Amino acid sequence: MRKTTIALAALALAVPLGGCVETRQYADVQFTPPQGQYRLLVLRPDVTVGSLTTGGMVEPRADWTEQARTNIIAALRAQQATRGGETLILDRRNQLQGVSAEEVAEVERLFYAVGQSIVLHKYLGEYLPTKRGKGLDWTLGQDAVKLGQKTGYDYALFLHAEDQVASTGRVALGVIGLAGCFVGFCAPNVGGATQIDYAGLVDLKTGEVVWFNVVRAGSQVPGIKFGELRTPAGAAQMVERLLGRMKPGQAVRQAMERR
Amino acid sequence: MKNFAKIGLLAAAAFALPACSSLGAGESGFSSFAAVQVKRVSVGDGSLSVVAPRPWNRTRPLGYVDIRVVEDWTLNGPYLDGISFVSGLKNDRYLVYQRRTTSQQVPKFRSNMTPPEIAAMIESLFRVRGGAIEYRTLGIAPRPFLGTNGFQYDYEHLDTDELWRKGRAVGAVIDGRLYLILLDAARSHYYPATLPDFEAIVASAQLRRG
User: Fold this and answer.
1) Is some CB atom of chain B closer than 8 A to the CB atom of A116?
2) What are φ and ψ of residue A83, in 5° steps?
């Protein structure tokens, strides 16, 4: 009983140290968050949810992924309803009149490569000297402009989410790692689940990526969660973290401060 | 071309970060990329020099997997665009570093290769090392390069990220060595956006005298 109490106390102490939620956004220097009667097109969220196995491998789960995507779309609808703009959220690629599913897929795939590039070169320290300190300097080019012309939308929002759910075995191994010194050996602590989400806003008049945000939520203790996309509450939390506080670009902020 | 290894390493580093250590270094610290200014610069082992029409980013050498005569540049990041320079690959050498035990090998360059054979070597590079799932040759034609009879090779490929990429290689075999400049970029926007730079770089290319 005493050992259990000590283990739980250690677990409780480890929780604040064992994980966190981080977010960092970049914007085009001249970016002003959309206001008033803007028309926003939200592309089908690119979602992957997997099980973090005892050995630390991630096994993608189609059923969890579909569940998470449904929750995210519902959370996006609820969040955008409070924003005032006219929003269409796609859950299929063939929903846009006059635009083929393949055209939508091409834009999605290009954004995915652009998004990966932004994460790599703006967040992970692999900066490109030609783009350093210049806000966001990526584009989807004419494909995005054509999408805007055909649909009449002002902006397109792309969302990517990856979530790992720690399996029972992984949680058990984590508990042994925490409590191992009390039961005769010190098992190494093992990492818990990680959620990485990013979103990008594209101006459909120019094709430019004007705003980008990354959220990383992770715990070093399996079983301790910082939001789970399989639940409506977790999806709503993620959408709020990602899109809740869109900041203007550097030049716009400086102009606001001078007033 | 070394970018195949580099992208893998960078991706591994990104996902190997301990939970919430940080979102990364942002734009501080040491990057794998260095600036290329608008002036004549030597590329590869220094036997080829070019002038870019605007600043680009060159990939720093990666040590043991580095091929000395190969250098990679990018404007928007290697997922989106890249220019590779081959500055005199010798007979019986590889374009990329690979272990002898690797089951699928990119063939060696041979001095007597014809342009279609060099094109096939480039195709195998993208299929074996780049993971291309579909590949199309768009054309091979004679083209002057470095003051001699060279060739131009156009191609496109679909990669595992489901994105089509398009490429153009301009090269020549001089004194038994391969000199080549190759553009490879996302077919949508990034290829047409970087093609004028590529053409200017090819037109500016010079061999080192002596």
Assistant:
1) yes
2) -95, -20
Q: Which helix (H) or strand (E) holds A18?
A: none
Look at the block and give the residue holding tokens 């220097």: A29
What is d(CA B200, CA B208) in angstroms, rounded to the nearest whole number?
Answer: 18
User: Residue B179 has what pLDDT?
Assistant: 96
Q: Which domain holds residue A219?
A: 20-258
pLDDT band at A162 (very low <50, low <70, confident <90, very high): confident
What is the arithmetic mean of pLDDT over B114-123? 95
In a domain, residue A244? The reply is: yes
Question: Which has the higher per-residue pLDDT, A241 or A150?
Answer: A150
Of A175-179, B18-22, B144-148, the range with the highest mean pLDDT is B144-148
Look at residue B11 and tell me if it is in a domain.
no
Put simply, whether B189 touches A (Cβ < 8 Å) is yes
Any domain includes A9:
no
A·B CB contacts under 8 A: 118
Which residues of chain A have a CB within 8 Å of the CB of B19? Answer: 18-20, 191-192, 194, 218-220
Q: Mind telling me how many Å the CA of B6 is from chain A's nearest CA?
A: 11
Contact predicate B10/A124, CB 8 Å: yes
- Domain that includes residue B76, residue range: 36-207
The answer to whether position B4 is within a domain reads: no
Q: Does A2 reside within a domain?
A: no
Q: Which residues of A34-72 are buried (b: 16+ CB within 10 A; e: fewer)?
A: beeeebbbbbbbbbbbbbbebeeebeebeebbebbbbbb
A116 within a domain of the structure (yes/no): yes
Which residues lie across from A149 on neighbouring strands?
none
Number of domains in chain B: 1
pLDDT for the residue A193: 61
Q: How large is the average pLDDT for residues A209-235? A: 75
* Domain count within chain A: 1
Which CATH number belongs to the domain containing residue B183 in this structure?
Answer: 3.40.1000.10
Q: What residues of chain B lie within 8 A of the CB of A23, using their CB?
A: 23
Cα–Cα dist B180/A89, whole Å: 47
pTM: 0.82
Q: What is the pLDDT of residues A35-58, one digit of tens each?
A: 778 899 999 998 888 876 666 666
Cβ–Cβ of A124/B24 closer than 8 Å?
yes
Q: Is residue B81 part of a domain?
A: yes
Give dist(CA A26, CA A118) in Å, integer: 10
Residue B15 domain-assigned (yes or no): no
Gap between the Cα atoms of A165 and B68, Å rounded = 44
